[in-house]
Amino acid sequence: MVNSQPNYELTISDAIPSYEIINAETPLSNEDRIPETQPTKRRKKKSIVWEHFTIETVSPGCRRARCKQCAQTFAYSTGSKVAGTSHLKRHIAKGTCSALLRNHDHNQLTPYTARTRGSGTGNASDTPKRRYRSPSTPYIIFDQDKCRHEIARMIIMHDYPLHMVEHPGFVAFVQNLQPQFKMVTFNSIQGDCVATYLMEKQHILKYIEGLPGRVCLTLDIWTSSQSLGYVFITGHFVDHDWKLQRRILNVVMEPYPDSDSALSHAVAVCLSDWGLEGRLFSVTCNQALSNAALENLRSLLSVKNPLILNGQLLVGNCIARTLSSVAKDLLGSAEDLITKIRDSVKYVKTSESHEEKFLELKQHLQVPSERSLFIDDEVQWNTSYEMLVAASELKEVFSCLDTSDPDYKGAPSMQDWKLVEILCSYLKPLFDAANILTTTTHPTAITFFHEVWKLQLDATRAVTSEDPFISRLNKIMQEKIDKYWRECSLVLALAVVMDPRFKMKLVEFSFTKIYGDDAHVYIKTVDDGIHELFHEYVALLPLPLTPAYAEDGVAGSHSKMEESPVLTDNGLTDFDAYIKETTSQHMKSELDQYLEESLLPRVPEFDVLGWWKLNKLKYPTLSKMARDILSVPVSTVAPDSVFYSKSKEMDRYRISLRPETVEALVCAKDWMQYGTPEASNALVQMIF
């Protein structure tokens, strides 16, 4: 007959540590009660208690258990009467052993603590029906603050709502998992999240302070249903290991985001918050600025920051937003045509029978296209482009469906399909360029020079057409792409010059293709700009920014020169001046030497920053300039938002929070993904 009672003894092979499960409702087993009358047959004590206690005979017939940690003794047996081990377990599990408390790591969590019978559920003194234990597992001290800290980190990392700590399901789960944990309120966890953000911020502050170069900023403006604006400010820079890095630095709420002073105020907050006065290299915005807003920003930065090239590199536009704006206008110019194509696709995709018939016709006609129809998302322009391409390749099937299905109405004509093909030919280069942004972690100026140049070349070469549709498309491309090229071509070209595979050669080639006989004017502008910028770096170095800025290269050479004795007291002062004057006329600068050297082979996956890292001693000043130029970002948006044709909008939950809480949640989540170490395990108490 099978025993109906639960069996709590588990037999596991010797190769695996044994875990003993004890039913707290049953009396103590013989392993815990060792009779005095059978000392020779006493079984080995298995209770975890004996890892912390030893038995000592204090007198005939009287033995006591001594704690190995604090040496305190407890009654164990008198004559044939055995006291058991419950009081010994309480000494360890309840944390009353002072020595054990001192020796344990307070950052660890505690096991399930014993509860007394009859108490209500969730009380720390309640007794569990079963306790799982392992002889090799030490007792771990419960830490309320540590648990709160981890809940705050969990909420930040996974974008959980702060209200979850008050949800009944979460409360019940935590109380069953650890009854000793005192549940927190919305205000408490809000303070914990801000405290976590402040601890992380201390590390980022030290990190930013020690950067060897300048910092570039991107400004991404989000809207909200309350007409409030939120400016996401991200810092881009090259670290000590010559790797591109980015960190979200601020999320600034602007009550009047369309005002001319909104962006300048947000940038001022960032510069002050992170001590970036005098360390800014460029600012890239996700939207075109009015002349007044641009002037306000330049005025602010001219006071707070030494202008590079008279501010020509200071403010740039986001290439992702530019491409989206052009694509949106192109699609908008053919809105009726796209609606007709979309309705045809809907007719096929929203009915299983229609789709089956469509596929049968495709197979019968042997259409070679591998594309599948899908309905576009009008917010993301790439889906509209791909819908048009797929439908265009299957136009024969649509034409056949028009003749075989009487319910299918409004089929596009052959002229419609011709216009779709023309429209797609204009959208394709935009789509290809934007796709690079989705696969590049840190899209920089050097990455996009060639793509923007191709777009500008296509716009310049566009033949004037009498067809109103083509003429309208040409006008859109020429106006918007030409505007971006005029405003940003200099910083794009300077980045190309800093690539040892291209230098000035690619600039000369590209500008000649675009401007023809007038190219020399634009080439000279770039050449003058790169030389002027180099001379500014020579004048500024060693830069008064951070000790790390002059830690290598120039600083070392200056110190060696200062230690060398100068012959000025032997009547050779004039000779020294003569030598300096005559040799400086023939001495080439680092920049000129670099430009005159042969181009490197164009190998795939070439690491431009890695090359400058290896050559920083050869070009101590030029390498610092290259480091800053190559960190200039061309896009302000995340890869998953590249194709958005609308501005990002803050959700209702976040706009219901305090602005400082929104900033804390967004920034701390961004920093945590880079593995920032914790400053302290103790929480800073934030009261709301």
From TrEMBL:
Region (Disordered): 108-135
Record PROSITE patterns: ZF_BED (PS50808)
SUPFAM superfamilies: beta-beta-alpha zinc fingers (SSF57667), Ribonuclease H-like (SSF53098)
Cellular component terms per the entry's GO annotation: nucleus
Keywords, alphabetical: DNA-binding, Metal-binding, Nucleus, Transcription, Transcription regulation, Zinc, Zinc-finger
Keyword Transcription regulation: yes
InterPro entries assigned: hAT-like_transposase_RNase-H, HATC_C_dom, RNaseH-like_sf, Znf_BED, ZnF_BED_domain_contain, Znf_C2H2_sf
Biological processes per GO annotation: post-embryonic development
UniProt keyword Lipid biosynthesis, yes or no: no
Polar residues bias spans: 108-126
Cell location: Nucleus
Domain of life (superkingdom): Eukaryota
Residues of the BED-type domain: 44-104
Subunit structure: Homodimer.
PANTHER family registered for this protein in UniProt: ZINC FINGER BED DOMAIN-CONTAINING PROTEIN 39 (PTHR46481:SF10), ZINC FINGER BED DOMAIN-CONTAINING PROTEIN 4 (PTHR46481)
Name of this protein: AC transposase
